[in-house]
Amino acid sequence: VIFLHGWAQNAYVMKSRTAKLEKKINQAGYDVVYLEAPHLLPMTSTVEIDGKEIQITNGQRENAKAWFVYSSVDRADASMALEETPMEYVGLDASIDQVKEYLMQCDGNLCAILGFSQGATFGHILSELASTAKQKRHANLEANPFAKIQCAILLSGFPSMHNGPLSNTNTERANNKLDLKSLHIYGGKDTSVPKSYGKKLANCFDNPEIYLHGKGHVIPHNNALCERVLGFLDSALNEES
User: Fold this and answer.
1) What is the pLDDT of residues 43-78, one digit of tens each?
2) Please, how many CA atoms are within 13 Å of residue 79, restricted to the half-sphere of its CB?
3) Helix or strand or coil: residue 223?
């Protein structure tokens, strides 16, 4: 199970916030891998206020990472994240290539992605690549490492608005619903990414499974959620075997 952290987080932060879930997944016989996004976000930005350039602080985390950024001018500017208009995700290719390189080395029976927040949006993009690769595999076309992704667990995410081709895969954005098994988890009290975005993301998939929790923009680690995730992974494994 490939874990993908959120905006301005990193692999260490994701691991520290999913320790219980990771333990449960390991006990069920699955391995967990924490990938880290390639783009480092600056701790300060320069903005113009009343004609004067002012330096502002973006946060205290020194190793804040992102799978892509929304502005080539100010890499820490996430104000466009929830805009529902097509845009280019700057630096996306590097993240796709990083996952592709890992998948080429992965030979397990089941490969799943689990993404939180921006990691879930990146997971949407990876799901597009996986769905397309799956169709080509069934048509006996070229082998594609993204075909190894058999399911996606997306937490507190929002639909991708990236409007360009996906890396060097020659894959255009999908117009139809994605043929990939998916579980969508979002919080009823989430004010960072309201649940309406999670519903829209789920609607991008065929037959999505939904788990609504009563918390905010967090990864819950209660027993009910852990069991739901494990049941989903077992189901995906049984479908592939």
Assistant:
1) 654 444 555 545 545 566 678 999 999 988 887 788
2) 5
3) helix
